[in-house]
Automatic annotation (TrEMBL), chain A:
Keyword ATP-binding: no
Segments crossing the lipid bilayer: 73-93
InterPro entries assigned to the protein according to its UniProt record, in alphabetical order: ABC/ECF_trnsptr_transmembrane
Keyword annotations: Membrane, Transmembrane, Transmembrane helix
Main localization (coarse): membrane
One annotated Gene Ontology cellular component of this protein: plasma membrane
Topology with respect to the bilayer: Multi-pass membrane protein
PANTHER family with a match to the protein in the record: PROTEIN ABCI12, CHLOROPLASTIC
Full protein name: Cobalt transporter
Length: 202, 264
């Protein structure tokens, strides 16, 4: 499942987060993460991560989004633990890993319970003051939508190039795929731009 | 609704893809066929201002694509062959809805329209599914729904079934047949055109045949034979073996390099 498939439709009465506005959820996320980091306490960080993990099933999101997030985070946590082990500071390792897990799990709760379109509406509202400087708030939100849209596009271009590379019996030298991936992405970007124009979203 | 092309010519990097095309398109169902590189897609893209011709002009009920592109794109929907390229938003319902963001409709009206179009095209059960994870047929149906939600008066479809299997091809073609809108369909599936009002055959950037489906398909089939020389004789006359063919009177001998080679 790619990042763009993180939204979990509300399926039970416990889906309280889905009923909150994107702005409320983002504000609470910001405050919670700031409090955990500001406390600079390993116990608080671990407790916050545990609470964030527990809130997933309690809010009707299931455990999958949490597990997916922790799996994606695992390599970074491993590097941090290794670094802190070499530095001989286990408390710092626990604190930093706890803070990272808490932040990522809380952010996942927001992502899993908020449609991208709601998030775009919020960013469009937040970007309104930029209109005084000549920026178009709708375009700001469109850029964000395009950024999210491009995640599966990049993955698809990489997969296609890799399959073509392997199908031709080539091995090693993954750098040889860089040019075809870039060319593929440029073509996809052209096609997407044309589609946006055709749909009147330019 | 009348689309009019007047002396339309266009070239990419010096390679002519449309050559002095004059057309008036007012029929309900219009098919366009031709080999790869014959200029079909460029012709289609001129109809809603995606391509502005190097010379000549394209008019929709008097509105020029050069000056009224936004208004024309609102009225002329466009469906691409690769539906993936048309998907903008992560989920099915969001992708359909984004076309209405500038419509001026209230949130409730937008939701009602999206729900109705998803229901009509069999996508209601996929409302919150990631759009890029749909099957090829569902993706093309989503692309179609995303355009139809804006209620265009004309629909231009550039080979919408090229990447689909036979079943999905039949579903998309049936959907297009049932639409109340005027449809301009570019396709290599000749069977889809038998009930159309008018079919254009394109070759070398020109409309070389313009008429009823049966005659147009016969003309095109003869034109595409590997031993075919060119779609028209050096004097611009009709192909001797294309029964009933009515060539474009303005057509000149095209510079096709060889009958059997791949086209750019």
């Amino acid at each position: 499942m790619s990042m763009v498939g993180l939204y979990v439709p509300p399926r039970s009465r416990r889906a309280v987060l889905h009923r909150l506005s994107a702005g409320t959820k983002l504000s609470v996320l910001l405050l919670a993460v700031a409090a955990v980091v500001a406390s600079a306490n390993a116990y608080v960080a671990v407790a916050a991560a545990a609470v964030a993990a527990l809130l997933h099933p309690l809010c009707g999101l299931g455990v999958r989004p949490a597990l997916r997030t922790l799996r994606a985070l695992a390599p970074f946590l491993a590097v941090i633990v290794l670094f802190q082990w070499l530095a001989g500071d286990w408390t710092a390792a626990v604190r930093v890993c706890g803070q990272l897990m808490a932040a990522a799990l809380l952010a996942t709760m927001v992502t899993a319970s908020t449609r991208v379109s709601e998030m775009l509406d919020l960013f469009e509202r937040l970007a309104r003051p930029l209109a005084r400087l000549g920026a178009d708030p709708r375009r700001v939100s469109l850029v964000l939508a395009m950024t999210i849209r491009c995640i599966p596009m990049v993955a698809s271009a990489w997969r296609t190039s890799r399959e073509a590379y392997l199908a031709r019996g080539l091995r090693g030298r993954p750098d040889a795929m860089v040019v075809p991936v870039i060319v593929g992405l440029l073509r996809s970007a052209d096609a997407l731009g044309e589609a946006l124009t055709a749909r009147g979203i330019d | 609704m009348t689309l009019r092309l007047e002396g339309v010519s266009h070239a990419y990097d010096g390679r002519a893809v449309l050559r002095d095309v004059d057309l008036e398109l007012s029929e309900h169902r219009i098919g366009v066929i031709g080999a790869n590189g014959s200029g079909k897609s460029t012709l289609a893209r001129t109809l809603n201002g995606l391509v502005l011709p190097d010379s000549g002009r394209v008019l929709l009920d008097g509105l020029n694509t050069r000056r009224h592109a936004r208004e024309i794109r609102r009225r002329v929907g466009f469906v691409f062959s690769d539906a993936s390229a048309q998907i903008v938003m992560p989920t099915v319902a969001e992708d359909v809805a984004i076309g209405l963001r500038r419509s001026g409709l209230s949130a409730d009206e937008q939701r009602a329209r999206v729900d109705a179009v998803l229901e009509r095209h069999g996508l209601a059960g996929h409302r919150d599914h990631p759009a890029h994870l749909l099957s090829g047929g569902q993706r093309q149906m989503l692309a179609l729904a995303s355009v139809l939600v804006t209620r265009p008066e004309v629909l231009v479809c550039d080979e919408p079934t090229t990447l689909l299997d036979l079943r999905n091809t039949a579903v998309i073609e049936e959907t297009l047949r049932a639409l109340p809108q005027q449809v301009v369909l570019l396709t290599h599936h000749l069977d889809a055109l038998t009930a159309f009002d008018r079919v254009l055959v394109m070759d070398e950037g020109r409309v070389v045949f313009d008429g009823a489906p049966a005659e147009a398909i016969a003309y095109y089939t003869a034109l595409m034979r590997p031993d075919a020389d060119t779609g028209h004789t050096a004097s611009g006359g009709p192909r001797p073996d294309a029964a009933g063919a009515q060539p474009d009177p303005g057509a000149e001998a095209g510079p096709r390099a060889s009958g059997g080679g791949l086209r750019p």
